[in-house]
Predict the structure.
Amino acid sequence: MQKSNMPLSSRRTLYGLFLILLMAMLAACSSLKLAYNNGDTLLYWWLDGYVDLNAEQKGWVKEDIDKLFHWHRKTQLQDYIQILQTAQRQLSASPTQADLQNDYDEIKKRTEALLLKATPELAELARSLQPEQIATLERKFANNNADFRKKNMRGDKEAQQRFRFKKSMEQFELWFGNFTDEQEAQIRKASDARPLNNEIWLDERTRRQNSILALARKVQSEKLGKEATQAQIQTLIKDGFRRLDNSERKAFFDAAEEANIQLVLTVINLATPAQKAHAQRRMQGWIDDFRSLSADQR
């Protein structure tokens, strides 16, 4: 079947193609195994929501996603187990900032590897997209940006900090359980110490989206072949992961990353033995589920 125009890739757009998108969904799910086993369907509908797949595309896109999940189940889940086991050991011994930085770098490295692995499938999808599908993608980006503004940029600085803190606490409570008012006050202080500039983050989102749209139109207008399209997508993925390191805004991004790590360290240092035990049990549950999933090769 002929698959012939656009990539869905870049940090924050397809940065979550699988790992970030899936892990965020898994974190909120009471059954990781159930969520993972239905992840191929969820990813399919997610892609369909961005480009409105046509009848010809739907069959082979599903097949490509199935193959990606099979590879992921077979080769990547053991790495996730190692990451979680490392996190368990760190939590028991109180991690350092360097520990958490290394954890973040490891996850980012695995995410990039996953996207690069998916490059041939992304190239097929890229080459098959029609002008109206690229227009659909552009509208989806615009809607996402409007939602970002509505949620993250509403009100004054205090309101935006409060919203950011609330989102962070939802994740911390998922892992550690409930916090006392005194703990929350200290966490809020660490949260507010993080640089806040949602205009920068919105501009970065827009840059990534525009790069994707530009590449989509280039693939279509120049009728690029598969290898040329794959090369373009690989460059886009790699540039997306290097963007924050090579940006004129590097100082801001570095400060934000460091402050985020400090926030996590604050939570860990404030956590009681019971709260840490809660986190250990959740991580062990994920480890057990990942072992079961990796053993089931389907």
Notes: The chain has one domain: 16-295.
